[in-house]
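Entry:
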Amino acid sequence: MIKKIATEQLRPGMFVHDLNCGWMEHPFMHNHFKVESHAEIEKITHIGIREVYIDTELGLDVKDAQTEEDVRAEIHDKMVKVVQAHPVRPRPRPVKEEMAAAKQVHHEANQAVHSIMTDIRVGKQIEVEQIDPVVERITDSILRNRDALISLGRIKERDNYTFQHSVNVCALLVSFSNALDFEPATIREVGIGGLLHDIGKMKVPLSILNKPGPLTEKEFEAMKSHAALGRDILRETPNIPDHAIMVAGQHHERYDGTGYPDQLKSDEISRFGQMAAIVDVYDALTSNRVYHKGEEPTGVLRKLYEWSKFHFDVELVQHFIRTIGIYPIGSLVSLESGRLAVVVEQGQENLLRPIVRVIFDLKQGFKITPKNIDLSQPVGKGGADRIVGYELPEKWKINPFDYL
C-alpha cells in the first residue's frame, strides 16, 4: 500500500515510493528507493522535502498514515471547489479558429528564443528589440484564446526542450498575469521574464545541460546555478525590466525558504517570482525528457496543489488552476457513459464541463467515430454526460493530439 508520511517519520528500512517533489528538485539518482541510513533521511530533509510517499509492501509501515488514494481524492475535491467558485472568462475566439495563428506564433517564438540563447552562449548581448515582438505576438494569441497556444506547449522535441520550455513558460505566465488582471505593461514585462527565465542555463556546461540521465550531486549544484546566472545576465542587459529579472532570479525559490539561489521565503519572493515557480514546475513535469516521462496536466495540477502546503502560495496555485482548467485541452478523460474523450475546448460557463471529442468505447473495447460533445448541454442537446477522471494516454495507446 502506498501511504503519505512526513519526512520526520522516515526510518531506515522504509521504501520511498515517491520523493514527492519535482524531478529537478532533488539530487537522488532515483525517485524511489529503500532508505538504508539516517544520513539518507537527513539528505532528504536538507533539500526541503517535507512529505514523501512510502510503499508498505516493500518496507516498514506507518500505521495511521493517509493512503495515496485518499490524498488524491481529497485534493481533487478541493480543486473542483476552486473552479466551481469562480465564473469562467470568455474566450473572444474559438480555439479551433485560433489554432493556426497559435502554431505560427509558437514556431516563430521558438526560433527567436533559440537565436537569443545561442547568442548568449557565444558571448553576445541580449537585444530587447528581438524580444518585444515575440512577447507581443504571444500575448495577442493568449488574449484571443489562451487554450490554443498553451495546448501547443505540451508538444515538445526533446532535443530542443530548453528553448521550447522558455516559450511555454512565457505563454503560461502571460495567461496567468492576464487572469490576475495585471496591467498590459506588467504583462509584457512578466512575459519577457518568462521567455528569458532560463537564460542562465547557457552558462551551464552542455555536458550537464544535455546529460541523458540523472545528474550527480556536483552536476546538480552546477545546474542550480542557472537561476543566479540568469538574474546577473539580465541585470547587466540594458532595458530589461525589473519584473523580468525577478522572474529569472526567483523561479526556483520556494515559499518555505527551501529554494534557491537565495533561500527567500514567503513575501520575500516577489509575486512574479512566485507565479514563475508554479508555471516552471507545471511545464517541466508535463514535458517528456530523455529520462523523464511527462505527466498528465491534471495529475501535475494536483501535485502543485498538494505542494502549496509548503512550497507555493496556495491562492496563486488556485488562480493558476482556474486559468488553465482542471482538464486542459488535449487531456484524455473518461466519461460517465463509459467512453474515452479528448478535451478540445474549455467550457464557456464551467471548467468541469468542457467540449470533448469522444473517440473510444470502453464497454465495447474499440475506437468509435470521433464526435464532439458539449458537456454543458442537457439531455436532448448532446450533453447529459460528465467527466469522471483523467486517463493516461499510453495505457490506451492513444495520442490525444491526433484528435485536436
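The longest helix spans residues 95-121.
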